[in-house]
Amino acid sequence: MRNSVYDNVAFQGGVSLPPQSFSGSSAVNGNVVNTQGMTDAILRAYGAAPSNPGTVANLVVTLQESTTGNSGWTNALDNTGTVIGFTLTGVIGVTGTTASGSPIITAMTSVTGLYVGQAIAGTGIPSGSVITAIQSTTAITISANATSSNTSEALTFSVEGQARIEGLGLNRHQYLRAVVTPAFTGGSSPAILGFAEIVQGGPPQQLPQNPAVSNT
């Protein structure tokens, strides 16, 4: 994962929407997270390389909040009134040329949306490989040598994102959950294996609690 959006904050744990295959177009609600005693949090999500990606493979990740944790869920807003969340957009249609015994992929049709640490999959690319360097607009280096030589090989990549959760201890409802809504176009049975989580941190002491407003 990338570095935390919080600087110098030690997060103490997290509650996840468990890893699963997201498909179709129905929203999937995550586990309820009780923020009592916490002062900082982030919303984080990850999607593996999509299967049969077609032309569009997105996961829309949204934070929701509730005063009871059982009902009355609404989209959580930041201090500008914007819904907290993000869209994970699959990198679709990228091809490259591999050479057996080399970790360098050349003749890339695009490196837009790629980053160091991103998982990559394709014919001749060992399982678990990740990008270790973006060499140029047409070449990348991965963490393992290719096992076969292929020209214009279709490549797929993981996607991830995170967002600050503001207002714990001030004006945020006590109970939070992540909601993931998949969106696909094309592909015979597109799906993305992924998860979403709310990672919390803060001092060990318990803060005064009002069930209607988190940690207030």
Describe the structure.
The chain has two domains: 11-47 and 57-91 and 160-201, Jelly Rolls (Sandwich), CATH 2.60.120; 94-154, no CATH class. 0% of the residues lie in helices and 44% in strands. The chain is built from no helices and 17 strands. The protein has strands at residues 11-23, 28-29, 33-34, 40-47, 56-66, 74-75, 85-89, 95-98, 104-105, 120-121, 131-134, 140-142, 150-154, 156-157, 159-165, 175-185, 191-201. Strands 2, 3, 5, 6, 7 and 16 form a six-stranded antiparallel beta sheet that branches. The chain has a four-stranded antiparallel beta sheet with strand order 1-17-4-15, with no helix packed on it. Strands 9-12-11 form a three-stranded antiparallel beta sheet, with no helix packed on it. The two termini are 31 Å apart. Mean pLDDT is 84; it is low at 1-6 and 204-216.
